[in-house]
Structures
1.
Amino acid sequence: MKPEKLMLGLFMCGALLLFGWYNIHKPSILVLHSYAPDYAWVRDVNLGLNRVFDRKYLYQVRWYYMDTKRHPSADFKTSAGIAARNVIAAMRPDVVIAIDDDAQEFAARYFVNDKRIKIVFAGVNREAADYGYVHAANVTGVLERIPLDAMREALRSAADFKALPHPIRVAFLGDQSETVDGDASQVQHYRWDPLVLGKVLLVDNWPAWQAGVKALAAEHDVVLVSGYRTLRRSATDPALVPAAEVVAWTEANAAVPVICFNGFYTEDGGMLAIGSSPYEQGEVAGRRALQIALEHRDPATLPIIASSQFIVTMNGTRMRARHFSLPMVYEAAARTGNQFRP
């Protein structure tokens, strides 16, 4: 063999070995979602993550979905959690980004203070202490907090409510998921002055939701809703009611405006939503993960923070049909975020 070919062969072998070694030793990140990739919230959190993950040649990213929103039974969640923990144990990533409460409850919290794995959480509606995260040496993240200040401001600025002879009476309605349980706690502990918080109602089936909508609308000026995707068809039928069906019936039968804390409400056919930004959740979690994986930052030095951004989504046809009017800045915000439906 000619020396030139021998040198080229050795160079190629060396380059391949170096490339293989580099890929094996690149920091690894596991994105662990509670729900499925076709869920609007997950889609938008992933958009936020991918805005930050723009140099993937420096690290490896793997995605895993527990799909507990469509399968809310305790048995399924337990099994999904075991499967997720097995993936973590087998992959042994440098960082786990655990998103939404089920990912914490059934998987991530089992690795608290594990020296081999760092945890970044996002989309957590409950408290960090519920999962043992507050004093954990290997955990940081961003709490999801519904934009109560923004909602109160919007209600006070609504033209219809300004003419009421009494303070605006607010009700809250949601399903009995982990997420809504956290949202309800935030609603109940918030100072609504000068508005008045009335009943907070969480239900687990469709007939109870329908009865709740009518009862709350009869005694309040506005019904605020959160999650509605885990409603069973009846107390004896565990089949889930499609989100579009829930929203269509609610909009048609509620005697007062219904406003949601989740931006995807208008995608499901609703009138208006003022919700936590899923993009912020993804971006903050992604930046924290890269700080840990690439800059070797200690999670304990990265404080747990609460969300600060929100999105507005709006259906103009439903707003007009309801004769519900807000200052023009709300429609402008929805249009700017490509979240306005004529």
2.
Amino acid sequence: MAGLGRNCVLCARKSLLFHRSCLTLTRTQIPLASEVVVTQVRGTKRWVRPYLQTLLNRINKENEWLGPLPPQPRSSKINWNYESELFAFGPRLGEKLNMNTLRAAFTDRSYVEQEEERRRELGLPLEDVKLDMQDNSHLSEQGWELTTNYIYRFIRAEFPLLPEEGVKAIHDYVTQEDMLVWIAKHLGVKDLIRCSTFPVPPPVTKQVFLAIIGAVKHDQGPQRAEAFVQDFVVAQLVGKDVNAMWDVPNPMGMLAEVLQKEGRGEPEPRIINQSGVNTVTPVFCVGVYSDKELLGEASGDTLPKAVEEAARVALANMFKTHEGRKPLALDTRLKTMAEITGKTQYLENKS
């Protein structure tokens, strides 16, 4: 027992000496209080990252079990102000529109019926159930009439030699539902549409976009509305191949009809060049002639395909829709039939 007690005393002495030496070393290295510089370190705490990672893992597990959350309209957010967003829509597009007209353009008929049904369920009197709210039916009709008329006139002015079937095909391409919905979404109309269903169906988005054009016509006149159509709808033709929009079922037959109307000879396809005829990848280059004049040439892996493609190239050259044509006249607006007629006669005489 005596030896054990002596060992304990020795250990205590060694520990005390060790702490004294550490204290002496610390005192010699610590500067004076006047020389201490305290700096504040700003940053994220250590617990933030694992905490957020835990929340993310929990959200992912809930999405796996219950599925993703359904889409919510922008109006469900706390910081949403419909009147402010509606007021900012016109200046964002550079248009001066009346608030009542713009509000009617964004209101679908289903929204009005939904609000009236909700009031009816609340037991309000019949005179209070009927809402004095205008929907966009009338404005969309005006917008569609102006849009289709202006696009037809613009295409006819740009391609006066193109048949009516080709003009209609280009018009249908520009005014198709997917195209108008794509334009409307990029203009920011999705969050402003008042509809009974969400997400907003594409037909409702198209009708709202046409109603906006009708609102521009109602507040600023038809010329400003035509400029709106040209800037946002007709401009979608830039960089597009108009020949791909019109699928001609029988190009050689149509070429023969066009040449017959002009009093020229029938089209004659001839092989200009060919390569690899006896291989698995042959190439045939065919040219279409009329009265010893080359109308168009193209190549294909088979002879019928080359003849058909050469006929399409010949039609594009005759209708002035080939790739080497001049760009669309988006800087000028041809609004009168006199200008269109004069341009058509000029191109016909030049050809």
3.
Amino acid sequence: MRPAAHAFAVARAVRGIEPLVATEIQRSSLGRVRGLRHREVWFEPSPEADLLGLRTADDVLIAAAVVDGVGHDRSALPRLAGAARDLHPVLPAWPDAGGLEVSASFVGRRNYTRYEIEDAVGAELARPSGLAYHSRRDGRRPPPDALSWRVTIEGDQAVIALRLADRPLHRRPYKTASVRGTLHPPVAAAMARLARLGDARTVLDPCCGAGTTLIEANALAPRLRPAGFDHDPAAIAAAAANARTAGASPFLWGVGDAGRLPVADGCVDRVLVNPPWGRQVPPRGALARGLGPLWREVRRVLADDGLAVALVHDGIPSGFVVEETHQVSLSGRHPEIAVLRKARSRG
């Protein structure tokens, strides 16, 4: 076990956007990136950095120990327990905590389960403080005021880390209202960053759902004029409620068909869109027979020098030029975040 000398932070991320998290850390002067792992970015925080301001990360933790030689057999369990025991001298008392809990994950197959890792490490972390350890076995949920530790293993290396916030960063306080198929906020934040909003004035989401993409865009570029449409009035109500909770600048929300947008030609600088997949939210209206009408409308309303950033599930739509793509893992599927420009008309 190696103590995490010069304590470093671990940003957890959706699989596929780790490089985008690293870019946010660097461009926001939050720290120096040490390396990327499966769903993780390790970095050394800058002094006084507001780590809880990371928007593309699912969570941020402070590493307490790095454990080498963690194999695939069950000898890994006492090794991890020993690493947690070695932390006893540096663990503070935490008198007000409602116990502690541990969440574990690993890459590849192992001869032990995540619950065995959690229990081995959690029992040792709780011992010196006298805190109750709350196991997650059998679907049990720890109390909300429990200290949250995480163990992640990739290859033969594990990290034991402590969450900084009371809850994961992806649980945005503004999301007081939701609808089926709502987009994961860090993915929406990554889409907003890819949209290069610096010189944009207007941004449109034609399938806005609960408003996540536009609220994340507004957090990045507050002077934007955001407009969101959705076929479902309940989604528009949720989006408006979330925007109010976020304290965001005025938005334009409207019930509308993404295949027949009430928007003039070429007047939108950026489009952010997560089209209906057909799993949780079935396409309706003009999109009921396919997404062709959506992409025709995006091309129509987008300015000639505009950008569209779309979460696409069935390939890149025709009529666009691809600038970059990032494949991500969401809900068991592997869509791509695609940055698109309108293709030039022939002739």
